[in-house]
Design a protein that fits this description.
With about 220 residues, this protein is mainly alpha-helical. Helices cover about 45% and strands about 10% of the residues. The chain is built from ten helices and four strands, in the order ααββαααβααβααα. The strands form two sheets. Strands 1-2 form a two-stranded antiparallel sheet.
Length: about 220
């Protein structure tokens, strides 16, 4: 797989259009601000549910890597047991994803409330703050964990030539079926090479439909 894709087509020329890039950032700020205000009661309810049903903090500090390999911290509602990172070592042999990323469909670390939140991507909501700050965009390649990024090939690092996002082609294009990390990267590079504001709007629309369908895991 990797050998087939060591070279990729050039990024969309729209990335060099300051008006489109500024408009993308403006959409990020307006939408994230609106949703953070609108969903603040939901944030409170989810935080209480996490705290009442599992020992540990309500939020999980997510140490990831952004554009051009710059590290940053984001947050999710904690959907796993508090010591999930330590337990991951014991589950590595069951990894269903080929490459540096980890995926396990029936992950025993996921709590009951966490499973429900993941189904509707509710655990992802705190990332809207990272969008408002400018570390992330609403649409863009998913940021990898710092420890995953350290294992990336040069080909895989191409997905971080733009700002990472909450959703992208991978989320709306069968994320639960992708089991080869290079296939995931291929979708991210397709987004980078085809990017336009219209593509972002289409992905956001499809993401809404995907979230409402409850197809997350």
């Amino acid at each position: 797989m990797q050998g087939q894709a060591e070279t990729s087509s050039l990024p969309s020329k729209n990335w060099s259009d300051s008006r489109q890039v500024t408009c993308k950032r403006a959409i990020d700020v307006v939408v994230s601000t609106f949703l953070l205000a609108l969903l603040s009661p939901v944030f409170l309810i989810l935080a209480v549910l996490v705290k009442l049903t599992s020992p540990g903090p309500a939020l999980y500090r997510w140490k990831v890597v952004g554009k051009n390999g710059e590290p940053f911290s984001s947050y999710k509602f904690r959907s796993m047991v508090a010591n999930a990172d330590e337990l991951k070592v014991e589950l590595e042999s069951r990894n269903e994803m080929t490459g540096p990323a980890f995926k396990l469909t029936q992950d025993p670390r996921i709590t009951r409330v966490g499973s429900w939140m993941r189904k509707y991507s509710l655990d992802e909501l705190p990332q809207l703050y990272s969008v408002l700050k400018g570390d992330m965009s609403l649409v863009g390649p998913r940021p990898p964990l710092a420890r995953e990024y350290n294992r990336f090939t040069d080909y895989q690092k191409q997905k971080l030539t733009v700002k990472p996002g909450i959703t992208c082609l991978w989320q709306v294009g069968g994320r639960n079926q992708v089991s080869d990390f290079d296939e995931w990267v291929k979708l991210d590079l397709e987004y980078i090479n085809r990017w336009s504001l219209w593509l972002d709007l289409r992905i956001l629309f499809k993401t809404t439909a995907t979230v409402l369908s409850g197809s997350g895991k």
